[in-house]
UniProtKB/TrEMBL annotation:
The active site is at T46. GO terms for molecular function: threonine-type endopeptidase activity. It catalyses: Cleavage of peptide bonds with very broad specificity. Pfam families: Proteasome (PF00227). It comes from the Archaea. Residues 256-265 have a biased composition (Acidic residues). One of its GO terms (cellular component) is proteasome core complex, beta-subunit complex. This is proteasome endopeptidase complex. Residues 24-33 have a biased composition (Basic and acidic residues). GO terms for biological process: proteolysis involved in protein catabolic process. The keyword rRNA-binding does not apply.
Length: 265
């Protein structure tokens, strides 16, 4: 029997850029860095992406953590964390805030299960996550939460705690580049194999231009049967793991992937 969760490595990290996309308004309107973020706060100029497919959801993120966006402090940060058997969250913002938030959300969802005798739905998990962000004390934190229960679902949770369901979402400093790739490659009802490649290429596209994103990739694949979390030492390895996938997205030429890897590094 396949384990419901295959977690291969562990670390937390993320970025403080406000999310938007698919015509939705951001929860912040200042257009800049949160004034409560400390000068020496470890963050990541993250790119996180999540999308819905026919039989599951995929989350992906880069692995770079930085100090104030100016100095790389960690090249193997994990910005996707499981919070339930079939639910995970990708985050951008302060590392300390992200660590505290994930612990708090896991505890809340476990408490819900004990009180109600059943696991929280993905929608409930997103609502609880939004409430936690809204109440604080998290200074700067933007989330993409995804999971599968009755069906696959992705929710974008802004820094003010607003919760929006969506077919796909991106956050972090590379989000605009990721959205450009997603909107060119994403289609409703993509099979999971193709969806993995579309999402991975969206992260890769961001790392090629966003200097605050890079240093590897984490991919979470969630179905009704399992939550698999994979870590890759380079962005190109993450893309290569998805195979040929959707033929109309990116390049299937392995030499082109290697050239992209050189640019990322």
């Amino acid at each position: 029997m396949q384990s419901p969760m295959n977690v291969k490595t562990s670390f937390l990290g993320s970025s403080g850029i406000q999310p938007s996309g698919n015509g939705r308004r951001s929860d912040r309107d200042d257009g800049g860095t949160d004034p409560h973020t400390l000068p020496n706060e470890i963050t990541t100029g993250t790119t996180t992406v999540g999308a819905v497919g026919t039989d599951g959801v995929v989350l992906a993120a880069d692995r770079r953590a930085s100090l104030g966006g100016k100095f790389v402090t960690n090249q193997s940060a994990r910005k996707i964390e499981p919070v339930a058997d079939r639910t995970a969250v990708a985050f951008s913002g302060s590392v300390s805030d992200a660590q505290s938030f994930v612990r708090h959300l896991r505890a809340e969802l476990r408490g819900y299960e004990l009180r109600h005798g059943d696991a929280a739905s993905v929608e409930t998990a997103a609502t609880v996550a939004g409430d936690l962000v809204r109440r604080g004390p998290y200074r700067i934190l933007d989330l993409v939460l995804a999971g599968v229960d009755d069906g696959p679902a992705v929710y974008q949770i802004g820094g003010g705690g607003g919760v929006m369901d969506t077919a796909y979402a991106a956050s972090g400093s590379g989000m605009q580049l990721a959205y450009g790739s997603l909107e060119g490659g994403y289609e409703p009802d993509l099979p999971l194999a193709d969806l993995r490649r579309v999402v991975a290429i969206a992260v890769q596209s961001a790392t090629e231009r966003d200097t605050a994103s890079g240093d590897g990739m984490t991919i979470a694949t969630i179905t009704a049967d399992s939550l698999d979390l994979e870590q890759f030492g380079s962005v190109a390895d993450g893309v290569a793991s998805t195979g040929d996938g959707a033929g109309n997205v990116g390049s299937n030429d392995p030499n082109a992937i290697e050239e992209s890897d050189e640019e990322v590094r």
